[in-house]
């Protein structure tokens, strides 16, 4: 069965009585990918001393985000705990890895909600309030909102804790930025003082411009829903970019030219100094963000003789909607190539994450796209795909 047919089958299943597309998706994930693996089975490893020794690198900590349809909170599913600030937290027990993935990708209306059965938990003793009062110094805890506090009786708690309804994380936090910020705050509160670098890759499509939006209630509702779903991520990304700018300004960097100007590729000495000082600050968290919707900045890279291909490629790729069918191989190749290009231009913003110059040079000095023009533009009618390339970085030391 092809991926396209599989996707259609999962969606169609949801239209039948007493059937669930979310449950079907779990079953397909299990039979094809995870083979009944538990969420608890992906507990991360720990400890390494040599960053070049692959055998001693720690395993990653996976956090699957979803939206709780009952409470509206961001729900996290980890190998050690599942829950959120309103429902509170419990051990994952027999929660399947396929259930976590299906919940995180449960596209509203079509592939949701996923009903997570937690009836084997005691609604009081097995659930824990893990919030840190130090993290809520200004009264922002949900406990200060009576309308968002769970009932205190056993039956009331059971209604929210023994069967949880989950939908796509996009409803609440598509990029997981809120989760990372929470982790960083709690690390600080618990005395972990070294700086962190967060890499954010955004493959979300652009909500298209519409000069004459329809006025009927259905079309208008769909348009408004699209705009509303964009807002959480746009606000978080804007805050990250502004915070990064303020972070460098605190170390004496002042912007002297528009971000997209290409009068020179040289990194200003004052910017380089600010980046190094910020990197040495143990209380400074850095973020690198790249997107299928944005052209990378040129600062620090060669000025391209002709950058039209970059604008055209972003415009084309950012218009690809969410689909429940396989896309052409050439289009997949273009998306993957763009991920390499965009990351190559943004990773240097956190280059202090590689304190060893040899490692930093190996990571940042080159960028080889995995797919050649013969694959991305097999017919020869897409110049932006054919001309796509990584720009040379002018300084990595």
Rg, nearest Å: 23 Å
Shape: globular
Helix content: 25-40%
What is the straight-line distance between the termini? 50 Å
Count of alpha/pi helices: 13
Category from helices, strands and their pairing: alpha+beta
Order of helices and strands: HHEEEEHEHEHHEHHEHHHHH
Main beta sheet: 6 strands, antiparallel
Number of strands: 8
List the strand order in the largest sheet: 4-3-2-1-6-5
List the SSEs and their pairings:
Elements: H1 3-13, H2 21-34, E1 64-68, E2 74-77, E3 82-84, E4 88-90, H3 97-104, E5 114-117, H4 154-161, E6 163-168, H5 170-173, H6 177-189, E7 197-202, H7 217-249, H8 269-279, E8 286-291, H9 308-317, H10 329-346, H11 357-364, H12 373-376, H13 383-387
Parallel strand pairs: 7-8
Antiparallel strand pairs: 1-2, 1-6, 2-3, 3-4, 5-6
Helix pairs in contact: 1-2, 2-3
